TrEMBL record, chain A:
UniProt-annotated stretches for the region Disordered: 189-213, 558-583
Keywords from the UniProt entry: Membrane, Transmembrane, Transmembrane helix
Biased composition (Basic and acidic residues): 203-213
Organism annotation: Micrococcus terreus
Protein name listed in UniProt: Putative membrane protein
A Pfam family this chain is assigned to: bPH_2
TM regions (residue ranges): 29-47, 67-87, 248-278
Stretches assigned to the YdbS-like PH domain: 89-168, 315-375, 444-520
Superkingdom classification of source: Bacteria
From TrEMBL, chain B:
Name by which UniProt lists this protein: YdbS-like PH domain-containing protein
UniProt KW Membrane keyword: yes
InterPro entries: YdbS-like_PH (IPR005182)
Coiled-coil region(s): none
Record keywords, A-Z: Membrane, Transmembrane, Transmembrane helix
Source organism, top-level taxon: Bacteria
Domain spans labelled YdbS-like PH: 96-173
Organism of provenance: Micrococcus terreus
UniProt-listed PANTHER family: TRANSMEMBRANE PROTEIN-RELATED, UPF0699 TRANSMEMBRANE PROTEIN YDBS
Alphabetical list of Pfam families matching this protein: bPH_2
Regions crossing the membrane: 39-59, 71-91
Length: 583, 184
């Protein structure tokens, strides 16, 4: 580690030097500005009258005294708040060691947290509006504990945050070794890396020559890029797609939230109309008032929800780099997420009814550590495509699920397409038996499953279409369930348990024999899947090389074909080694 | 196998291949001591809840709530009591429907009388395993095992395991989990 910094280290590289650092001094203000704003508001509210009297109405003694008292009280609280802010800043320290990130917080009740770098599932960089104005950013780490963020450094300078993120991603994904015991212990990795070469320890073939150059001459990069001031340069990235603002607005307006709002408003109108009609074509004032008062909170919350959809989807960009999938979005508050490949546990492609004429889809994923759907922030983080045509779905899939595992002569894009829009038995989907029409009159031919060598594709929904993809090796546990009615009809439900997130893969009302067969098959695969067994690194060099090759190929393929015929887009452009997936 | 209780329709469905019976699985039933243990807990619950729901009835009979409709005063606790009695009556069969099977790579759990469920928890996926007991369970020398994977949906609890067997299972599963350790 020292070798990369010692010589080239410009001042920002100090964030990663293993010493203790403090967050930026004004960060408590950025975090707690609402408190101060609230104080100011109350002060103006209570003392405003006095101020007016003192200034414009000849300075009455009582008013001046009142003003003095208010000033003293609020000034005191204000100073106390500032002291609290100062102390909280003073007692917050972090440092990066070769294997962990440590954060100490708290004045009276202290907390010392340490996160192992190899357990980090994702690293996010978030900039709320105020932080953005002052050039600060929050750096968040997620570990697979299912709770809130494992650690959040709020706030540090944006440059520093980026350097730190790069450093952490680099160390966690094994780009940098030497200090890394896992890689050092792995003779293969060492052999590839070349133990005597500290400049490029990862040693895998780079698709991008500029990167190798960057690694060799980190000092030169400082001058060139201006960003790469820590030893590691930013991994080169390829933008896969960007969501245009117009499409985003359209999708929000036609989306589920907005539709609900419109339906609610219409039904309210109908109710009022009925009252109006039966009340002798006149509205009683209580009714109007009640309706108005009742609808204000609803309206505020719905406007908030719609706004947050728009804000979080604004300028949504999906890019890939060697350290994983990069998502950037946000209008006022911007975020930048990096999800290493192989950390995506399950994927859902989803199409609300009103998006159908436009061919739009939405995609969410489960990433361990991103938590549940319950909190809006978590739901936002799980989003990998707010709205996009089918080609965009394939683009994202080529990164989050690079190996569709289809057999020779099959077209992965066709299978996925059938999964999203299709019905019946096309492309090898097995749908519910005829007896299921009693319980699923509309969807029994949609509720279907298709198993490839690497994943399960579960589709469902007639009005709102859904397709869930889950790699076999990501199944944590599974269950097959049957109630009395299902028993009569010869049906069963198969649930695959994924990590916490918006995707809950489950096959509704399958034929009992199908459900049991899949249960046996999946439990066998889940039990023996040891792909990630003995490693904590994000990716091995050879894996990363493969990932990079695949994304390059997929992007090229998609770009080549997307202006021709959308259905011909192949996700599995690279010939996949057949023995690999089934293990 | 034979000790496992089923509803008649489940037996019929299994025979016709419509039930969720896995072939070739040797199920181990949980300890029959779970039945009295559950009876005790359920009776305590029944008494407490029936008493709570009888408060209006008592108030009605004693006078302060004399305006309260008598059918409601009698009806609510009666319904509650009936529900609990049905629950009590079903305990033995529900307990007999519980079972587990240690397979080579995973643990199978089964439960449910009418709403049946078979769950597979691969050893390599176990994040942790809890062995719990309460005062009633301790009296009967049984424990509850709780399995947790990285998924919150893994709702795998196995009540009514004799203490010795629980310890054996815990050690066995942890050992197997280590040899078959899998990442997320």
């Amino acid at each position: 580690m020292q070798s990369t910094h010692g010589t080239h280290g410009v001042q920002t590289a100090q964030t990663a030097d293993g010493a203790w650092h403090r967050v930026h001094p004004i960060s408590p203000l950025v975090r707690g500005w609402l408190v101060l704003a609230g104080l100011l508001f109350f002060f103006i509210q209570s003392a405003g009258e006095d101020v007016v009297q003192v200034l414009f109405e000849g300075g009455q003694f009582r008013a001046a005294r009142g003003l003095g008292i208010s000033l003293a009280i609020f000034g005191g609280i204000f100073v106390l708040a500032l002291i609290a802010f100062f102390l909280s800043w003073r007692f917050t320290r972090y440092r990066l060691t070769p294997e962990t990130v440590q954060l100490h917080t708290g004045i009276i009740f202290r907390q010392r947290r340490e996160v192992r770098l190899d357990r980090v599932q994702a690293v996010d960089l978030r900039q709320p509006l105020l932080a953005r104005i002052v050039g600060l950013a929050e750096l968040k780490f997620e570990a697979a504990d299912g709770g809130s963020s494992a650690m959040a450094l709020e706030f540090i300078k944006r440059d520093e945050a980026e350097a730190l993120r790069r450093e952490i991603m680099g160390r966690a994904s094994g780009i940098q070794s030497g200090v890394d015991p896992d890689v050092a212990a792995d003779p293969q990795a060492r052999a590839v890396a070349g133990p005597s070469d500290p400049a490029d320890p990862s040693g895998h073939p780079h698709p991008d020559d500029g990167r190798d150059l960057a690694l060799e001459g980190a000092g030169a990069v400082v001058g060139q890029v201006g960003k790469g001031r820590s030893g590691l340069p930013e991994a080169p990235e390829q933008v896969m797609l960007q969501v245009p603002a117009g499409r985003l607005i359209g999708s929000v307006l036609l989306g589920t939230g907005m539709t609900t709002l419109v339906v609610a408003a219409l039904s309210l109108g109908v109710v009022l109309g009925v009252i109006w009609w039966f009340n002798g074509q006149e509205l009683p004032p209580e009714a109007t008032r009640g309706v108005l008062l009742g609808s204000i909170p609803v309206a505020i919350s719905s406007v908030g929800a719609v706004w947050s959809q728009f804000n979080s989807g604004y300028n949504f960009t999906v890019a890939t780099a060697s350290d994983g999938l990069r998502l950037r979005y946000g209008l006022l508050e911007t975020s930048q997420q990096t999800v290493p490949p192989g950390r995506v546990q399950a994927i859902k492609v989803h199409q609300p009814l009103l998006w159908r004429p436009f061919g739009w889809h939405r995609m969410v994923v489960n990433v361990a550590g991103y938590g549940s759907l319950s909190e809006a922030a978590d739901a936002k983080k799980s989003l990998v495509l707010p709205v996009g045509p089918f080609e965009d779905v394939l683009r994202v899939l080529s990164v989050v699920a690079p190996d569709p595992g289809v057999r020779e002569g099959e077209e992965a894009a066709q299978i996925i397409r059938t999964g999203v829009v299709g019905s019946g038995e096309d492309q090898g989907y097995r749908h519910s038996p005829r007896s299921a029409r009693w319980v699923d009159p509309l969807t029994w031919r949609r509720n279907a499953v298709r198993s490839t060598q690497t994943m399960m594709l579960i589709r469902g929904g007639r009005l709102t279409r859904r397709l869930t993809l889950m790699p076999h090796e990501r199944v944590q546990s599974l269950s097959v369930e049957q109630g009395p009615l299902e028993r009569r009809l010869g049906l069963a439900v198969l649930n695959l348990h994924s990590t916490m997130g918006p995707v809950t893969p489950g096959l509704r009302h399958a034929d009992v024999s199908v459900a049991l067969e899949l249960f046996e098959q999946e439990s066998a695969i889940a039990a023996v899947s040891r792909r990630m067994s003995d490693r904590n690194q994000w990716m091995r060099p050879e894996e990363r090389a493969r990932f990079e090759r695949r994304t390059v190929e997929a992007v090229e393929k998609v770009e080549e074909l997307s202006d021709e015929r959308p259905s011909a887009v192949a996700v599995d452009s690279a010939p996949s080694p057949p023995q690999e997936p089934a293990r | 196998m034979s000790t496992m209780d089923r509803t008649p329709d489940a037996r019929e469905a299994d025979a016709a291949g419509q039930g969720i019976e896995l072939h070739g699985v040797q199920w181990t039933p949980v300890s029959p001591k779970l039945i009295p243990a559950r009876f005790i807990s359920a009776i305590i619950n029944t008494v407490i809840w029936t008493a709570l729901f009888s408060v209006p009835l008592v108030l009605h009979l004693l006078g302060p709530w004399s305006g309260y409709p008598a059918w409601l005063a009698w009806g609510v606790p009666a319904v509650v009591l009936a529900m609990f009695l049905v629950n009590l009556a079903l305990i033995p069969r529900r307990v007999r429907a519980l079972g587990y099977a240690e397979r080579e790579d995973d643990l199978l759990l089964r439960s449910g009388l009418w709403f049946r469920r078979v769950m597979a928890v691969p050893y390599g996926r176990l994040q942790y395993l809890d062995v719990k007991d309460g005062p009633v369970q301790r009296r009967f020398g049984i424990r509850t095992l709780e399995f947790q994977t990285a998924s919150a949906a893994t709702d795998a609890t196995l009540p009514g395991i004799p203490a010795a067997e629980a310890d054996r299972l815990r050690e066995e599963l942890v050992a197997r989990g280590q040899t078959r350790l899998a990442g997320l």
